[in-house]
Amino acid sequence: MATPALIDINQAVSQYLLKYKKSTEDALIYTEHACLCFQDFSLYDGNNLVTVKVTVTANKWIVMPSDMVGFNDLMVLQTDGSFWPCTERDDMITTTTTTAGVEGRDSTIGEGAALADPKSSTYGGVGGVNDYYYKKEWKERRIYTEGFTTETVVLQYTSTGIEMSGTTYIPTLIVPMVDAYLLWKESYWIPTLFRERESREKDYKNRRMEARNFVSSMSYNQWRDLFLSMTTQSVIR
Amino acid sequence: MIKREIRSLVFNRLQKYDSSATYHARVIDAECEAVLNQMYNEVAAASPLSLMRFVKGYGYTTPLTVLTEPSSGIYYTTLPENIVPIMDKASGVRRVAPATQTGIKFFPMDQREWDLIMGGSFVNYVKNKIGYCVTSTRVEYYGMTGAIITSGVRMDLLIPFSEYTDTEVILVPEHKDGNGMGFIDRVVESFKDRPTVDLTDDNKDTE
């Protein structure tokens, strides 16, 4: 829902057309570019992670959400209210076996079999290891897993920001950046703006840095917590 | 000015070749239409948004019907009048809106954009806009909603001189060309060195 902090991306384009006295001639083209601008922001500057509960199938894989373009973490829910992060295992078998037209896993050749933890109870142990593993297969858009005792885990990922169904909202703080992006991109199809392309690109980069700095900047309390976390408390006399 | 005043003004500005010769109204109207169409396009080239000042509204009292073409599934509205073709995508259909004021917006598009958007694009997912594509006889819609199909649409059209009745006001662009000639001057100029066809001394508009 639109709020003072969020705006429908269509509305952002309409406002752009209004502010810069544009006709509605290329509104749909501007909307496409606005989506690309928002996608760039979501991926590179927005620090906007999506956290969702996902189901692990009986074949021990998770289907990536359709808007997932970047992976951040896979975590197990704990009853103490915190997440337990999983560990990536590159040596996990991710092949499948199709029998009678049904895709599955054949444990006799190691597909979906329990992984042995590289830990030792003898001298020279290498330290703590995880019990929960995953491996990403981007082409199949699956995350293969091993070690889960529950079928629901939490996936944290970077989204394009574009809603495949429903309204796509963008933060109002990036509206000036979207405007600058559209002003820059229109120079590619409006021949008279050819000479302005470079300066408009520069405007966009400035606006982008403003938004990036705003999103990424840390508050006083965050800095304080960072410093305190690096210190050891001493005895108070 | 109303249409017949414009015609009368042009008629009175034309050079008389003899005491009885007359120019047929149909010929004058045709010249007025040609010059007016040209001037609308000049306005479009200078400032497309300004064309809204010269449009005529349709579907305001009785909404225009949105129909479906069974063979293609295309939603469309038949143009209520001929339009003046303009060089941009909206052509002579300068605005389409729902019959009642709502937040839904219509935006002009061409057939190529239609194909590309349908072929997969972000716009296809995020748009809350309805695209309209102007053809010579109808306006086709992309992304039409059930509510608007039911309620109908209204349109602001740029129509040619011949579509106006004699008593209707025609809004004529007031700009002048490089020679300082406005609408009436240009129409009169088009008759220059062109004697009237009918020189029969019977003082009739018809041959």
Word description of this protein:
The complex is a heterodimer of chains A (237) and B (207). Helix content of chain A is 30%, strand content 23%. Chain A is an alpha+beta fold. In chain A, the strands form four sheets. A four-stranded antiparallel beta sheet of chain A has the order 2-11-4-5. Chain A has a four-stranded mixed beta sheet with strand order 3-10-9-6, with no helix packed on it. Chain A has a two-stranded antiparallel ribbon with strand order 1-12. In chain A, strand 9 (133-137) and strand 10 form a beta hairpin. Chain A is extended. Chain B is elongated, with a radius of gyration of 21 Å. Chain B has helices spanning 3-13, 25-46, 111-118, 122-126, 146-151, 183-190; strands at 56-58, 67-68, 75-78, 93-98, 105-108, 129-134, 138-142, 153-157. With 207 residues, chain B is of the alpha+beta class. In chain B, helix 1 (3-13) packs across helix 6 and helix 2 packs across helix 6 (183-190). Chains A and B meet through helix 1 and helix 2 of A and strand 5 and helix 4 of B.
Compact description:
Chain A has five helices and twelve strands. Chain A has 237 residues and is of the alpha+beta class. The mean pLDDT of chain A is 88.
What brief labels describe this structure?
heterodimer; A: 237 residues; alpha+beta; 4-stranded antiparallel sheet; 4-stranded mixed sheet; 12 strands; 30% helix; B: 207 residues; 5-stranded mixed sheet; 6 helices; 8 strands; elongated
